[in-house]
Design goal:
It is a single chain. By secondary structure, the protein is of the alpha/beta class. Helices cover 49% and strands 9% of the residues. The protein has 20 helices and 8 strands.
């Protein structure tokens, strides 16, 4: 066993890939692209161990292209040039598929060197990143690529991968393996949606298992030692982990600190630090919001501390933040406002930006009414002056309605007094 199990067991068909049904399920866009054989430049965005490299390798085999792998953390411009130099050799006869992992670590100049080759089609780029590509990938690369977001793999799907791993080890090692459903569930649950981690755990459990009468027995005790988690029951379908995330957020929204801390404990026991932090920040913005906006930087600070110190100490600032969210007043006026606005934008309700708000300082000769006409609010009493900000098509549209909490009502009282003067 010279390479990790996750590498040795790479799927040979799309049906063997676990998770990502929203991308490669029957009838989904990415599956159709792969099966069609004409692969465009792709960017795979998502957490580690969810199938980005696996799918890139499969695509390379499917298209009969030569696969070259580079990692943005270690590769240089010279490494890219070495790939380019192979285009005119036997290796590049059918084209090269370049899998560039962690593309966000490539600077703008390095990313620009790819443009000529991905534009003429001699190199097909599949780049992956754990960061939002719209923030970290050069815009010219983005405009020539299609972005697909990968999700953490569900527990039920990871169990399928673990079972397949057991069968693979049986055949590879030519020995019988005994493993209970409880062990499979524990391995699947402990990996936080990371298939690679689950297979690595399975392999470690196999290597440390005792052999008796030609049978390798993987015990729950061994699995618990490797995962360093306390066993607790999850439902057979593998949805329990995501039910906990839902219960965690709903308990904070419902202002029940006891329940919220309980579900936080279950998430941290399962190793889902990122999920616990993400739901906490979402709840602070969505459910507390403008009722107590001072809480938002406090929660963010607690999350930053948790991510820096890691588990088990991360439980302390997270518990503080969760309890504060539970005890804070609640308002959904902010999320209601942005959802209404986004619904209008999605429906095509936009219109031209009013002339006084445009970033222009001159008019063309064809403009009969020259001038910016912007009224600078700070030049007027109470730093306010009536003027139109929304496009004509949406004039007088109301997206935001003040919440009934003390904080927003004080804002309303202040602005009612000032605006009624004009």
């Amino acid at each position: 066993m010279t390479s990790p199990l996750a590498d040795r067991i790479r799927p040979k068909s799309l049906n063997d890939v676990v998770g990502q049904e929203h991308l490669i399920g029957q009838g989904k866009a990415l599956r159709k692209i792969i099966e069609g054989g004409e692969i465009p430049n792709l960017i795979f965005y998502g957490p580690s161990g969810v199938g980005k490299t696996t799918l890139a390798s499969y695509i390379a085999q499917k298209t009969n292209k030569t696969l070259k792998k580079l990692n943005g953390t270690t590769a240089s411009t010279a490494d890219l040039k070495d790939v380019f130099s192979q285009l005119d050799t036997f290796a590049g006869l059918n084209g090269i598929l370049l899998y560039l992992d962690e593309i966000q670590y490539f600077n703008k100049k390095q990313q620009q060197t790819l443009l000529e080759y991905i534009e003429n089609g001699r190199i097909t780029l599949i780049a992956s990143t754990t960061e939002n590509p719209y923030f970290y990938v050069y815009n010219a690369i983005l405009s020539r690529s299609t972005v697909f977001e990968f999700k953490p793999v569900s527990v039920s799907e990871i169990k399928r991968a673990v079972i397949r791993g057991v069968k693979f080890l049986r055949d590879e090692q030519d020995c019988e393996i005994e493993i209970s459903n409880e062990c499979v569930e524990r391995i699947a649950l402990s990996c936080g949606g990371d298939v690679r981690k689950s297979l690595n755990t399975l392999e470690l459990a196999f290597l440390s298992a005792d052999e008796k009468d030609g049978v390798k027995e993987i015990t729950l005790d061994t699995v618990l030692q490797l995962t360093e988690k306390t066993a607790f029951k999850y439902d057979k379908d593998g949805d329990e982990h995501y039910d906990i995330l839902s219960a965690y957020q709903k308990s904070m929204r419902g202002s029940d600190p006891d329940a919220a801390v309980h579900y936080l404990a279950r998430l941290l026991t399962a190793g889902d630090l990122i999920g616990a932090c993400r739901r906490l920040m979402v709840c602070a913005c969505e459910d507390v919001g403008l009722a107590y906006p001072q809480l938002l930087p406090i929660v963010k600070s607690c999350v930053d501390m948790a991510m820096q110190v890691g588990l088990p100490e991360a439980r302390i600032p997270l518990a503080d933040a969760v309890i504060m969210v539970c005890n804070a007043p609640k308002s959904i006026s902010g999320i209601n406002a942005i959802d209404r606005a986004m619904a209008d934008v999605a429906a095509g309700k936009a219109g031209a930006i009013p002339r006084q708000l445009q970033n222009k300082h001159f008019d063309g000769e064809d403009n009969q009414n020259k001038g910016q006409f912007y009224l600078y609010p700070h030049n007027y009493e109470n730093h306010y002056i009536v003027q139109q900000y929304l496009p004509d098509e949406l004039k007088n549209t109301k997206y935001y309605e003040y919440g009934d909490n003390k904080n927003e009502q004080s804002f309303k009282s202040y602005w009612d007094k000032i605006k009624n003067k004009q």
